[in-house]
Design brief:
The structure is a homodimer of 223-residue chains. With 223 residues, chain A is of the alpha/beta class. The first copy, chain A, has seven helices and five strands. Chain A has one domain: Rossmann fold, CATH 3.40.50. In chain A, helix 1 crosses helix 6.
Chain lengths: 223, 223
């Protein structure tokens, strides 16, 4: 039995990744991080997704990144952009993937799991530096110098199966695997019921993805 | 004005590092992590140390690593060894330095600081893999692919000024810089008042360090 830690945000991409990891035969331990994100509804979504897609357990770790701020997602004084911007957007959260991967690394070592899955993507993404292949490779290299498990001959492998897929391709893959995207939340300013704004970057990418995949968009929009 | 984030545990090493960073002219932002450590008294020590050694601010971030366990410091069912052991000891906390450095990375980016100081040491250390120079180099390389700041031309530098010093040399350096080691707590099973057991690995290394430095040991022992 191969065990894996799967980072699960509650969004579309990580739900697809969980389905892919399961299809590859992994016993999946889902990990979500409550970092004080504006779109807290994604955490409720992560609970639904982990159950629906067969994770054997799901942990939500709390870490208050609003103590640092510096992002539209962790500082209520910074508004979420509602039209496309150039460069790295205000929704970038400093070191978010590094923090989440470091927590996944800790749990993987305790579980004696040698695999971590995450839903980063370098195609239809938002310009975040910690979603690029060279970042993932550098994290894996660092992780294999960091842990007792790696030093003792059990190296860690990071899996980013969505890295080179478009949003439309991700959705088609998920639909093949039976993912019900209705239960996922992508919107950066989703309301408490998980209803989407329809205008933020994340909503725009998601909407275009369903259109490209020629799949009916099940997202509940409030506008 | 150069700003730096200094990881401060409340122990002997990181107190010395804060004094070194201040001597090098950095405006120091001290960061401690309450991860559910058995020796919680070190956090009270970190407050005293940050004030005494002139940090401009001090934040304590909570992250409950007892949810993962896997270490004598984060699982009350695993006893702290009271005699020297071979190999990586039970006090190793999976991915601890990676988690702490990732939090320091996040805060540094928000502060627009390009320097992080930490007290890892490869000489008189406990065999932890995430205290080795090759680990520190790999983390720095990863960090410089992770953040918006690095991508936009403001790379991060990790400083580990104790890396190649013996415990005795660290203590002599700290004494030169006016560090009062009485306010630091190293013991893995310090009591609520910060009194040391005198027999754990950390106590042993500390005691031997004062002896080698020919400095009177100010540690309050309870035995």
């Amino acid at each position: 039995m191969k065990h894996a830690v799967v980072l699960l945000s509650g969004g579309l991409d990580s739900a697809t990744v969980l389905a892919i990891a399961r299809e590859q035969g992994y016993v999946c331990h889902a990990l979500s991080v409550d970092y004080g994100q504006r779109h807290h509804a994604e955490l409720a979504a992560s609970v639904r997704v982990s159950q629906a897609l067969g994770a054997v357990e799901h942990r939500v770790i709390n870490i208050d990144l609003t103590a640092f701020g510096g992002s539209a997602l962790t500082d209520s004084a910074i508004a979420v952009p509602e039209s496309p911007t150039t460069g790295i957007p205000l929704t970038y959260v400093p070191a978010r993937n590094t923090i989440m991967l470091s927590l996944a690394l800790a749990w993987a070592e305790v579980l004696q799991a040698q695999d971590i899955f995450l839903g980063v993507n370098a195609v239809d993404y938002s310009g975040y530096p910690d979603c690029r292949p060279e970042y993932i490779e550098a994290f894996e290299r660092m992780a294999n110098l960091a842990t007792k498990a790696a030093v003792e001959g059990k190296p860690l492998k990071l899996h980013a199966p969505l890295m080179h897929l478009s949003k439309g391709e991700i959705i088609r893959r998920g639909v093949e695997l039976g993912v019900d995207y209705c239960m996922t939340v992508s919107c950066y300013q989703a309301d408490a019921e998980g209803r989407a704004c329809g205008v933020c970057d994340s909503c725009r990418l998601r909407r275009e993805g369903f259109s490209a995949a020629q799949v009916a968009d099940p997202t509940p929009y409030r506008n």
